[in-house]
Amino acid sequence: MRPYKVGGKTYYPTVVRVGTKYRGTASWYGPNFHGKKTSNGEYYNMYELTAAHKTLPMNTMVKVTNLNNGRSVVVRINDRGPFVKNRIIDLSYAAAKKIGVIGKGTAPVEIEVLGFDKTIATLASGAKKEVEIGNFGVQIASFRRFEGAQITKKRYAQVDGRYRAVIKKFIVDDEPLYRVWLIGFESEDEARDFIASGRFPGAFVVRE
Question: Which domains does the chain have, with CATH numbers?
């Protein structure tokens, strides 16, 4: 979320709300960047459903709809760009192929913010599931070792009498990653207010 400068221009990443929509021109990037590091430190995989955006928070999940043909895809923001005038998002090869951007190279699109974190991608296998993204939560920690996650879960089994900790297992870089989430929030605003209290530095909003 830190400001950064490219080509003499400073960009300011900003907080966004679920449901926010934008329109603009999408492009895509592929083989020349495959295997290189993205702005958040991951390695770009042109066959995954990801995208680059200049200001959306990393790990924001967005639905991108090609306005020429109505086809949609859900992608996770893990890179910065495109730094070309009048372009709003740079799609991975796989994402661009799904909505028919590969041939022409660009297309007018609508972007809708669905939520945050990688978990939504596992629910986005079909058009109906793209919006079935569950309840809000807050990630408070992550561990490579299950034992660490288990200790944290027990420590925060009950928070404020309203929220409880759960462990979510993910595979990142071919290794398990155990994330501890607090669940039970009724809205995004409630989750953000909880984060703003500062009790868990580095916490962020997720969707179940």
Answer: 4-131 (2.40.40.10), 136-207 (3.30.70.1070)
